[in-house]
Each structure stands twice: as C-alpha cells, then as structure tokens.
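Please, does this match?
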Amino acid sequence: MTLFGFPCLFHDLTGLNCMTCGATRAVFSLLRGDVMVAVQQNALIVLLIPFVLYQAIALLLNRLSGKQTLRPLRLGRRGAIWLVGLALAFMIVRNLPIPAARFLNPP
C-alpha cells in the first residue's frame, strides 16, 4: 500500500490495513461520483468528509467576512475520544477475518 507514492510502513510491517488505507482512492472515487466504490476504498473517510468540508467552509467564510457567518464545529475532549475510538474500531473491524469485514478492505 502506498500513500502519495510512499510505502505504508504499518501495512508493510503488519500486513494489516490501517484506518487511512484507501483514503486517497476513496476521495478520488467521490470526485468521480462513485460513492459505492469510495465506501469500499475507505468507509471512514467517506463518513468524515462532510464534516471536514463543513468545517473548512465555515472557517473560510468566517475569515473572509470577519464575523461568524457559520458556526464552526466544536469537537471537544469527549468528541476527540469518540473520534479516535471510532477510527481504531474501524481499523480493527476491517482487519477481522470474516466475510462481512472484508467489504471494508480496499481492493
């Protein structure tokens, strides 16, 4: 597995897929309009992209307008813990040797 042309050290050492394996391909699939292919590449990234886009747009509009046009998302400590837990759970489930979990592995 590679990330921007560089080998993925985690995958090379363990043979397992990390939480970001397939993320770049998922984004490019979304840009082409292939949502199901993007979900197969990396479902977690597909789930998080709307939140990241909203945050980027809110921060950009607020910076350009000089006032709070859109309220940015506040993650907080509890939200950060949930997000890390979700990412770790996704990584564990996508590496389980069961057919349902294999759907989460990038082809």
Q: What stands out?
A: The longest strand covers residues 2-3.
